[in-house]
Amino acid sequence: MSNLRYRQLPESLYSDQAPQPFTDMTLCDLNESWLEETPHQSAYRCPVYLRDLLNGQLPDQLKPLAMKYDGHQFGHYNPQLGDGRGLLIDEIHGPNQQLFEVHLKGAGMTPYSRGGDGRAVLRSTIREYLGSIAMHGLNIPTTNAIALGASRDWVWREQQEPCATLLRVTPSHIRFGHFEFLYYQRNPEETSQLLDFVMRCHYPELSSAEAWFDKLVKRCARLVAKWQSVGFLHGVMNTDNMSILGETLDYGPYYFLDEYRPRHVANHTDSQGRYRFDRQPGIMRWNLAALAQSLSQVIDAKVLIESVNRFQDYFDEAYRHEMLAKLDLSEEHTGLLERWLELLETHRADYTYSHFLLAQDVTTNFDTLKALFNGDAAFDNWLNDYLKTSSNIDERRTRLRQVNPKFILRHHLLNEVIAKAESGDFSDIAKYRRIFANPFQDHIEDDAMSIPPLKPVPVSLSCSS
Ligand code: AMP
Ligand code: MG
What we know:
Elements: E1 14-16, E2 26-30, H1 32-35, H2 47-54, E3 65-67, E4 71-73, E5 76-78, E6 86-93, E7 99-105, E8 120-121, H3 122-137, E9 144-156, E10 160-170, H4 176-184, H5 188-202, H6 209-230, E11 232-233, E12 255-256, H7 280-295, H8 301-327, H9 334-347, H10 351-358, H11 362-372, H12 377-387, H13 393-403, H14 411-422, H15 427-437
Antiparallel strand pairs: 1-3, 2-9, 4-5, 6-7, 7-10, 8-10, 9-10, 11-12
Helix pairs in contact: 3-14, 3-15, 4-5, 4-7, 6-7, 6-8, 7-8, 9-12
This protein binds adenosine monophosphate and magnesium ion.
């Protein structure tokens, strides 16, 4: 008996691969609230077991594998992708009795490593660990992370850096790139098998492949609408980083906006600005079109194109819904939303903080709020018009606080927790986890972490990880 449903798939989609243990391994943090939802007898409740998994020491009954997939990177097809440093190691029950795959990231080399060392560094592993916990806290579909480990072994990036590993969980790690691989292999038979598997395991409520694809298009449109609404920049929306569940997947050079700069590019290697913040919806559509092409060997292309063409409507509707909720406005006041975004952009106001202040008592916060807009009289006019749209301020504030987080995983905060961890002190990781898992709560003792940096620098992140 195999421990992984993924093994039901054709063998071309994976390779058996054992992890390569480290010289030493420390369990830095674990995701308590997630692990509490695993069954009582689960070994995953034991920190020593988690530490061993993070170190690549697996019990005999686990038969790990590396997945094969391809994908379009920056618009160009790359036939040589796959799990180059991560392994699917297990499947466990998590929240709501759902079955989750467990993936060990940083586990060592695989047949798909393409000359890479198979490792992940502490910096990028902390970024993924906290990034996915923060997204989950913001109620945005995402893979999650349940444990983080650090080793004293090191690898070379731009400099010598310590290695780390992460246990990632999601019901499915299948990417758009899985279908692209089979398409470029000209293999309709295995494409059908993969499609059946995805539908049977993850979309049992649907009876046709056409309905499945349309649902995925809708989920992806809603996902990007949510990203835009919290100011999340993914940074590397290649098709191999796109989940067939419509979840946020692969946290690389991501960035939560400080100042509202819709044209911001977070990824240092993205010289064309392909993955710019305001281009994310268009890129998601492009990625879905690439997936549609791959599916065209088994689904009528005309139907697929119709679904891709519905993306914009799905996105517009979801985005309007998310953004109007952030201001607690109804459809008729869309003009006020547009004026607000213009003000934010003109003054490069802090995106999260300005929404958060608006959800408080604006009379008390008026000066702080106005300062974000450099004292511009246009802001006073806007605020006057905005306040007229609600007759019950208290109820509005309650609703606003439910959708506008106080805490966002800011770049400078991540840098602080990473620097401390690199010096051997992992204690802040748990503190960050607790705050960002509940970003709408007050956490009064950590108020300072909700304040934007005094001088935010436009962030440009290296892809190395
Ligand atoms: P990413 O940018 O993390 O999405 O990775 C893109 C591809 O490169 C995936 O196929 C990864 O598995 C692979 N990869 C990234 N880093 C490494 C590494 N250090 N060693 C081997 N493969 C890697
Ligand atoms: Mg990736």
